[in-house]
Inverse folding.
């Protein structure tokens, strides 16, 4: 079987959840001896990007890479939408039309131009929008405006696509809202590599260690998290670690609140997660966050908002699932995590680890992906 992946870059050359998912998807398809046509981009097309040094030699035997520079456009409200259309068109023109593959996985709006050109002889196109943030709760006016602008093109590609990938949970509900029938929705969760799984879950201490991983983006809920920490500080003894590029002007100055900055070293991230007891993800909108999977794989219980497909990961057994944009509920969950017994907390941590180990490893999830694509390819033929 031959599969094409169109994406706005792959990790580690482009940072983002979609880019990381693209990397692992390509990697594990290749590991299963599926031929992959990888069409991607990067802000700076370096020799590393062209050579795909992020993949092993055995993986590269099954990967054909085409790097396409993202078209430059003037900045104006909604310029990203126009740029996305031009990038999709450029992919089509570079490939000379539809590639000779059995199935196309188009991330974001990369398949837009192809969907306008489809015929009965074209390979099926499955789109993967990931989070559907434009249909989720908005943190501010800017987010609302961005959501309004994205609604038309993303609704269009969802309706025109042969198949739409969903992580499940509320993501499937969002896809249905766009009038996509269930027989065109492919539910495949995100996943994590086995080497993220810790070999040793350390027992909790009375002094709880919390961790947040993410960039300073309004929808990530850092402002709300800072306010909750400020209200709880002094009432309970805890540490809070932040991983991500949060500027000093936005940081809290309390003892025990530690800002590590951006960390790209996987070993260092795992070390901090493994020493933590609870990972907090208070986002206004998400798909199926990698950071939650990574935290659970390292023995963290989770406090997270009920957005996207998060409910497939977080429940009363593995942590605390709180309503989105509910500041009181977030504070109560943090307080509960800081005060429950070590036995109760360690039970949640163990169940979180087991849940990921059983259901969300790439080695298992990629088989679901291959089976789903194979079934739809056979039906299309």
């Amino acid at each position: 079987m031959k599969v094409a992946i169109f994406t706005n870059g792959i990790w580690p050359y482009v940072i983002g959840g979609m880019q990381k998912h693209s990397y692992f998807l390509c990697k594990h398809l290749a590991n299963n001896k599926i031929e992959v046509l990888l069409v991607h981009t990067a802000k700076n097309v370096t020799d590393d990007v062209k050579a795909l040094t992020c993949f092993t030699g055995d993986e590269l035997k099954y990967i054909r890479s085409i790097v396409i520079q993202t078209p430059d456009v003037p900045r104006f409200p909604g310029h990203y939408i126009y740029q996305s259309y031009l990038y999709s068109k450029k992919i089509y023109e570079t490939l000379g039309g539809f590639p000779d593959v059995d199935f196309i996985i188009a991330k974001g709006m990369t398949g837009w131009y192809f969907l306008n050109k489809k015929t009965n002889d074209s390979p099926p196109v499955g789109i993967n929008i990931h989070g559907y943030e434009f249909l989720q709760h908005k943190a501010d006016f800017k987010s609302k405006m961005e959501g309004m602008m994205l609604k038309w093109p993303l609704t269009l590609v969802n309706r025109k696509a042969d198949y739409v990938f969903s992580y499940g949970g509320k993501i499937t509900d969002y896809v249905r809202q766009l009038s996509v029938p269930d027989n065109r929705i492919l539910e495949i969760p995100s996943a994590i590599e086995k080497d993220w799984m810790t070999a040793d879950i350390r027992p909790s201490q009375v002094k709880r260690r919390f961790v947040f991983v993410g960039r300073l983006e309004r929808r990530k809920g850092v402002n709300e998290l800072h306010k909750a920490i400020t209200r709880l500080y002094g009432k309970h003894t805890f540490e809070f670690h932040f991983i991500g590029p949060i500027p000093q002007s936005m940081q809290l100055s309390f003892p025990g609140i530690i800002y590590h900055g951006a960390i790209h070293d996987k070993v260092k991230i795992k070390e901090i997660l493994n020493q933590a007891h609870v990972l907090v993800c208070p986002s206004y909108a998400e798909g199926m966050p990698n950071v939650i999977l990574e935290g659970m794989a390292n023995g963290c219980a989770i406090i997270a908002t009920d957005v996207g497909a998060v409910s497939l990961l977080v429940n009363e057994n593995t942590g605390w699932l709180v309503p989105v944009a509910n500041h009181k509920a977030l504070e109560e969950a943090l307080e509960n995590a800081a005060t429950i017994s070590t036995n109760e907390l360690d039970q949640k941590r163990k169940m979180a680890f087991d849940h990921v180990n059983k259901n969300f490893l790439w080695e298992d999830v990629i088989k679901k992906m291959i089976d789903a694509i194979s079934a739809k390819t056979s039906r299309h033929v």
DSSP finds 13 helices and 13 strands in the chain. The domain at 194-359 is CATH 3.40.50.2000 (Rossmann fold). The first strand starts at residue 2 and ends at 6. The mean pLDDT is 93.
